[in-house]
Amino acid sequence: MSFNKPNPFNPITLISYDLPFSQKVNLTIYDLRGNVIITLIDKKEERGIKNVQWNAKNQEGQKVPTGIYFYKISTNNFESSKKMILLK
After folding, report:
1. Is the peptide bond before 8 cis (omega within 30 degrees of 0)?
2. pLDDT range class, residue 66, cuts 50, 70, 90
3. Which residue, 51, 56, 58, 84, has fewest beta-carbon neighbours within 10 Å?
4. Residue 31, Cα to own-chain centre: how many angstroms?
5. Can you tell me whether residue 86 is helix, strand or coil?
6. Is the pTM of this model over 0.90?
7. Which CATH number covers residue 36?
8. Into how many domains does the chain fold?
């Protein structure tokens, strides 16, 4: 299970998820067109509750515009996508 708060957000949102066991995790932010904005996590993580902040910036460190974004979290046996709204 995963969620982000606050949603809508400005300028930072916290994405939380729970890992039942150690595994590789990929957490990527996408825009409405499906373009990758930034990959926040792409590594093996230990089990437990995890929290990752996204500061509404892309891979180059530039602020992204107001709009709807999605985050996708995937592991070997789980995948979920959620909508986020950035308001400025």
Report:
1. yes
2. very high
3. 51
4. 12
5. strand
6. yes
7. 2.60.40.4070
8. 1
